[in-house]
Amino acid sequence: MTAHRLSELLQLEPYQAYSYSYPHKSAYRPITQPPPLADAWASEPRDALFLYLHVPFCSYRCGFCNLFAMARPAPAQVEAYLAQMEKQLRVTADALGEHRFVRFALGGGTPTYLDAPQLQRLFDFVQRHANIDLHSIPAGIEVSPETVDAAKMKICRDAGIDRVSMGIQSFSDAEVRSLVRPQQRAVVEEAITQIRAAGIPTLNLDLIYGIAGQTVASFLSSIDSALAFQPEELYLYPLYVRPHTGLDRIGAKEGGKRSFVIHPESVDNRLALYEAGRERLLAAGYVQVSMRMFRAANAPDSGGPAYCCQSDGMVGIGCGARSYTSGLHYSSEYGVSRRSVADILAHYLERDEASFASIDYGVRLDEDERRRRFVIQSLLAQPGLDLAQYRERFGTECFDDLPQLDQLFEQGLATREDALVALNDTGLARADTIGPWLISAGVAERMRDYQLD
């Protein structure tokens, strides 16, 4: 995308790609000489790490989902997966040596697809093998409404979970059906009741805009329904239809497009929906953190030891989980279709301890890619890109390294106050254009060449 001027890209459909990580996993490849895990982390700071566990199982596969997930696995497969996660965590903790985790997240998939004893088992082996105290750090879990019950929420709270994120997507039954998601409003309301009853301090609800048949009025109705529960956080996600998802297969059967295609003009109402939703949340007292994230004014401070995603490492455990050192990002393979997910999962379940002790799939980041990652992750969220922090970390001037950033000011998308560059309201609305625009030519080529299955 970097070959294009920003002014050209702004003429296109505003929703190009979600830059939630950089480089994207489609830029990962097999590593020909796999380094030992201990060597990869030896020179890295390990006193402020993020521990992420990935449970890829779900009750059903939503039509829009392009995550590494599998619906309705065999019970024996779930048991084998938990045993393998514990093995991987034990090997990883040994390779890290002296370390400390200061952030924790349990995602998926749907971690609460696990039954209560399995969920307890997971928390037990985390405490057994990792240097972590979930009661003194921010610790979150993702859930879906039909998997929430009082017993599971008590286990989560007793373990130290202080944030639950639940995908609602819409409070309209018709819109939920359009997403190929068998969900009923009554189930959602009961799930929220159970989360609140467990005393978990932070509730996040996810909503989607751009659903077939959705209007500004219906979207605002879903937002108002969510606000009635006074969630501490709300995420508004634009709908993307990606290859090999359920909505993509439905579109193909109906003669539609096989994937999201760049259009020269706006062809849907997502921007109007976003603007209306943003206005409603700001009026309700929420603060916008990024294009997608809104936080209530009374939301509790996350607290805990300091962690910076731009400089501190992430350790991912489980099939599909990413790990980040400063110069190497790694994971298992990436797939979306049920067949590819099943194949990757089968390979994960066959791995022995020796294989977990080395890194065989990922992407190395040279100095230019590290700079781009810092800029993308800082710029797309508030308070913005701190030029002094950039200089301190890299020893160079940000605008000398990435002169294309001047185009943000030319297009009226950002402001600069002292050393802080921040996207304005118009810039935040175009975050899914700005993110892809900042991708390097090399990473863009790797992503284009990736054969997704």
UniProtKB/TrEMBL annotation:
Presence of keyword Transcription: no
Keywords: Iron, Iron-sulfur, Metal-binding, S-adenosyl-L-methionine
MF (Gene Ontology): 4 iron, 4 sulfur cluster binding; catalytic activity; metal ion binding
Domain Radical SAM core, chain residue ranges per copy: 43-284
Cofactor(s) of this protein: [4Fe-4S] cluster
GO cellular component: cytoplasm
Record flagged with keyword Cytoplasm: no
Biological processes annotated in GO: porphyrin-containing compound biosynthetic process
Source taxon at top rank: Bacteria
Protein name: Coproporphyrinogen III oxidase
Species of the source: Stenotrophomonas terrae
